[in-house]
Design a protein that fits this description.
The protein has 173 residues and is an alpha+beta fold. Helix content is 30%, strand content 38%. Helix 3 runs antiparallel to helix 5.
Length: 173
Amino acid sequence: MRRLLAGLVLFSSVAVAAPSLLELLNDSDRIQPIELMQRIESQFPGVIVEFETDVDNGVLVYEIDLINPDDHTTTELDILAGSGEILKRKVDRLEADDMAELAAVKLLVQKKLSFSQLVAMAMQNSKAHLLEAQLDKDLGIAYLELKVMDERGKHKLAFDIEKQRPLPLLKWD
């Protein structure tokens, strides 16, 4: 019984010591998502189709996926939010389940927009932190789906690529 209690005390003190996601997102020393997206857009071929935040052992990591419509490849990157260091880079061929994202990429290219510009437009009136952003096409609409977080909690939004405005029917909390 004594070992169980000691283990619980040790576990609870470790859990308390680990920073929350909101604390990590409020850290002003980290690279902001839009800034990182702009760097990636200038350094890698293709179009960003997905951005995601993850916490790995108490460290904030950004995950970015790109699609290169010219050579039909995807690139996955894991990047430290604090330094911008690339932890992982993986390149694969496009698969059948990437076709909705590819259709959204083609529309983004046609509109002469970058992923970072689209995210900035979608979040221009928001003070929330970006957790995830992903291009998709469904029911004939190409859109950007966002997951954001603020002091009130997590929220989802959708932004129409064609009309460059929020999609009220796909906006939910």
